Amino acid sequence: MRNIHKGQSPDYLEAYRQEETACYEDFPNKKDLLGRLVEEQRGLCCYCMRRLDQDDGSAKIEHWYPQRPAPPAVRQPGRDLEYSNLLAACTGGQGTNMEHCDRAKKNSILNRNPSNPNHDVQGPLHYLSSGKVDSVNDALRQDLEILNLNCEALITQRQYAITTMNMALNKRAGTRSRAAVQALLDDYDGANGGNLKPFCQVAVYLLRKHLQRR
Asked: Which of 10, 3, 5, 66 is nearest to 34 (CA)?
């Protein structure tokens, strides 16, 4: 996961919320809203950091606090259209035996919202050479389990990201200056703008550790 910096709720969403019968199911601008969320998240799933593309059906609108939360939690009227509660997620391996993200979460309530400025989901996470992701924070570790972020499919993709980054760091061994490593970090961390690379936070974690050792 990566911290998400949300902007202002779009005017068309706020205008619709004022209607007496407003509800998410009948909201007419879901496509525009999804595009806004994908752009805001710089092209990555809010949970696993896979690439999102609304045009190929790989993205969907996710309600962080579920529309129909599992008991004993109660439904919270109005949150289905609350912009701070809306994220863009991948399809989560739908139809496979390795469902993850929203597909694994179902109606569970998470402890940490990646778009809540008071919830740091980056700092407490660490990535193992095996491709697994873990956390020093018990609440965040529970979220990883609920979202099934250590399913085999995601572990394999993180292993590829780790291998790619290690190859970049070892290229022409001994010649990468601190400035060159910092430039790589800036690229993966999004300092240069535009969409982020899939699983970028894995690379960011490795690059920061590399710089700490220099």
From this structure: 10
